Batch of 4 targets.
Target 1
Amino acid sequence: MSPGTVAAPRPAHPGWLLQLGLRAAVSALPALLALAGVLAIGQLAQRVLWPALFLSDPALRLEETLLLAGTGLLLVASLGRAVVLAIAVRAGAARLRTSASPGVAAATAGLRGIAWAAAAVVVDTALSVWFWGVLVSSAVALALGGPVVSALGAVGVAAVLSLGALLGPAAALWLELGLVVSVVRPVRVRAAAAEALGILLARPGFLLLAWVVTAIPAGLLAGGFQVLAAGAPGPGVAAAGAKFVAVLLVALVEAGATLARLDALAALVLDREGALPPPPPVPPAPVPRATLLGPEVVEARPVGPIAPWNPGAPG
């Protein structure tokens, strides 16, 4: 390095990014409650309307009504989730930002959240069609083909299983990161997608760590709440109330984990801009001290006057 060049700042520590994300998620209580409410509406729609659709009396002829009502309610809940999540992440990044950049307006963030929600549906559908199409065709070739075709089918099954286990989480992380970049920085969706891909390839370890420390504990807590709700005695008001409370708690846990993860990704994007607050300074190590006296007690006692020394005097 030449004397005139300046060293690039080191990326922030993953622990500091996660701490900032958790702090931003907890401080935004209205956004957290709004996201939890939208998630609870979606879960209630799935738990109530679909069983009623498939288990209702055919003589009532409510199939089309329930289908339209359930589809509409799920669509509204999905759009509400996209808007609330985008605005909440935008607000969290604004609280973390140290520069004077204006950022993205709340209305623009909401529209970009809807755009990325639609992109998530398209990507998920494409991956599902690719995965099941290649898997079924490879399995048929493996079972019914000749020796060469069976070998190719076995290779295809192994390839689609291994790539599917990698591409699914990678696509989910890329979509979340693209949403974060779109609402944190004033860039278009296409540029945000390219930047999100670059960040994903540059720091895949942090993205995976952020998902592990948020999604896995949230899943365990949600599973525990559902188990407790399933243990409610018999059908009745108590069981219905327990299931309703479980839905609210699961939605609240999922909302908190999602906001903490996305706010941590927003901190990562701000760190690349140099607009992230630095971590607190590490306190200096204590100065070692030598022990001059042992554990025994030292006692001072008064003494009388000392006589002058006379070397010739008798002892």
Target 2
Amino acid sequence: MAVTINDLQAITKDKFNGKVTQIIYETNNFLDLINKRGNAKKTLNGGYQLKLPVRYTELDQAKSVDPDDARSTVRVETRTDLVFDPKFYICDIVATWNEQSKCKSEHAVVNLLKEKLAEGLEDLSAKVSEHLFQAYANIGSNDLRGIYDFIRDPSTSTTYAELSSSDSSDHVAGLYDTTTTVLSLYGSNSMDYAIRQCSFREPPTHIFTTRAIASIYSSKLQPGERRQPQTGKGGSGWDSDLYFQGIPIIADANITSGHMIFLNMNSLYFFVYPDDDFKGDGWERDPDRLKADRNLLTLVCVFATDCRKQHGAFTGITS
């Protein structure tokens, strides 16, 4: 049974208003971790740019004095704004007249719409996940600025969100190592070394890597060593009991081969416009197809960190 545009709107609003969107966050390991810390779906309230306030240098005014000294004060500028442009993502879904006509009941139409909405939202989520982890050199002008916007070789760029490292050395990633190929737990250029390089104010909370490197790490452990099998999920949706120094190691299909990434999830943020938060614009007649209906799914977002030194990466691990 083919249904009218009004029926499509009513069915969608009644059955899926916000529910599928929440599932998208919960099934994306990376966004789920940010969301659980209260840092996802932060609202962008108008304006084209996001300005994220940060403390970019130390006050450095504490001193020991002679109690008879005259008091003098100096004003030091310690805060500035990181400036980000939001990025726009869309995905069209189409319900053709032929597809709807093959449905023998409203229930069948509901199931068709559910699958199409979920498919479109999953496609949006997959594209965002891809861009979150894509190499700095591959970032397109319309792409979301992902983790390699702030974790990268300082020689490629020293500016992040319009803040130059010449203004603040704290706004350079704690680690970007292209030469280390052997994964070591302790010693020079080891995982322990990486964590210490990224422990500015706070250490990394999670380690992301490929399944191949997770297996390499696992092979270096004695049975039961540095594992937490009672947890089972390493704080995310990927079933792993691997930890290092209490930090969960999570494999993600979007991680580049050879990379091990150290992130402090507490300093990562995913901002969205509420009206374009993995949501549809509503159904309309598709002018390109006979009696077909379409729905435009949209996401307008910014991904940001307020402290680059809490993150880092090895980029050449092979064994």
Target 3
Amino acid sequence: MKINSLFSDGGTCSNNCAMPSLKNNHSSVAFKSYEPTKAKEIAQRLERNYGMICNFDNNGYLAECVEKTTKVFSDLFGRNHIPKRAGYREMCRHWIKAEYDPSNNGVEFNKDYDDTLYGDKYTHRETMEEDEHFLRPDHSSSRHPAHVFAHEYSHCAHWHHLEDRNGYSSAMRVWIGLAGVQIPSAIGRLITRFKLSNYAVGTKSQCDMCEFMAERLAQDVCNGLTEESWTKYKSIDIRYDNIFSRKWNYRYSSPQSYIDYFTQQVWNGDIDSANRVGDDAAAYLAEIESQSVSDTVSQFKKSTEGTMFERLGRALFGLNETITEKSDERNKIRLRG
């Protein structure tokens, strides 16, 4: 699936101006999240164009973000892979910024973050850049303002793919299974060692396979979005058809191939195959680590040829031979005596 200029320069939303420097004091900017008319118009558009039922509680900025994300994921995966509901409410688990529920195909955003993530684009950007929740490399794959929205929509796309393959009941069992299994540690080690990505790896964040998939997709999507506006893509190629459908012999090919093949198994809900990729990745890591040690020893030997170390080694070897010869002579004298 190729991403390449999906949007025209005009985009779907009216605000395409470049964002001012964060060094400016945005407190003087009027707080614009409470925009009943704008929120209502966007909700009506989403219902008319995508069949979505939305309750933004008059938050115009949130409505705009949801509309942009809906457009992105509809273009990427199709209209049948987007949520049917979007809501804005206070959540019992206050630390959750948003969540997707496959049982009702709805995404909810937490009103506790009204003054940070869902207030306006200035505070949103600053939150993504300064909040330690997003700065932790083992937790979040991107600090792009679209990340929270892309993450939840990625869950949605993943769920619909599983439902298309298995039907609702079987897909739900698979979904629960994926959510209950942490990604193999070797996959996380490949990610962190080779810096293939900084999406969740399960080392500290206890990332399960569902979260891995959402972070993988969210990172790819956010990397393709323009920084100031989400209304157009940079010219890149995600090549999901290659990752999700390719048949390959990935063994001992490259670190990225292990990650991509693992991604394919998680996308398809094949937990056993995903774990086998983890076992293979562990063997691959052991192989390259062993080779790394061997190369280091070889380089050290090569670097000491003809040097003081080599001369010292030859001198010690010669001294040892001399001592051995003299010891042998003394032993012969004793035997003759």
Target 4
Amino acid sequence: MKAPARMFQLSDWYGADWDHKKPVDDLWVSPWAKAHYKLRQQEIEIEQCEYMLKQAVEAEDFAEADGLRTRVERLRSQHPITPREERLTEAIEEQNFALAQVFQNDLDAVKTNLGLPKYNVGQAIKHAHREGLRGIVLDVDLQCGKGRSWIHEAGCLERGCAVDMPSEEMDISQLRSWANQPFYLVLLDLAELKDEQAAEEGAQTWRWKWPRELAAWEVNHFAEVPAPLYLPEEALVLDFNDEAAPSHPEMDAHFSTYEMYPHRGRVYQPTPRLRLWQQQRQKDEQESRRQRGAFDISSKNPYDRMR
């Protein structure tokens, strides 16, 4: 196992004439949105091929299975992240920690060059400052997609929680940089939030422990489960708890199996239903922004655009 000769560059993917400062197509999130979208589509194609491969094997159509297996191997080898993560896992399993650090640095550099978020869909995470808040990433936005009022309320709460200060004492001028980071839709672990007394009486209620300002969307009080949370990247860390899996009534609808990695913890495989929902969410968000009218595409900060 050899360390990579050099770091991955974005031009390796798009060609030498790639200009990250030039707007691309109908881009509205950031100059890196196209790279993020392309990577997501590549991952979905790999998942679809793996699903068809499993069906072909079960049907004993071995010729089709061989073709699909070759296709999956080719797609995975072309993925800028997956092969590096596999090398990193192998180095850790072999306890070659010096080489593992080289692979980790290379992986971090690739993600930085691609403008990718730190955590992927299906990653088990927990909140760095709110005890007991853990869950699984449902979707990722490269920057905060909420409006100014949400950024003001949630930003003051989260930054205040990080430094142990009341939200009303936070400097709102710093919210612009706070909003300019990846944000995650997180499916909550509800194991400790269920109201056991209500459950015994046949009701499905939950003891909400977190600020409602962090909710990804408003939910009717009679909804079966709380809404996912919308959390900034700086507030999240990996969850390495392999003894207690996150519990949620909709887990099976969104995720199937999972793998446990020494450097990433628990990572779940998204279901086709979740992928379709992600694609529809992106389309709905783009259409919503178009309907709001013209805006300055050169502005990288949604806090500025919503003023």
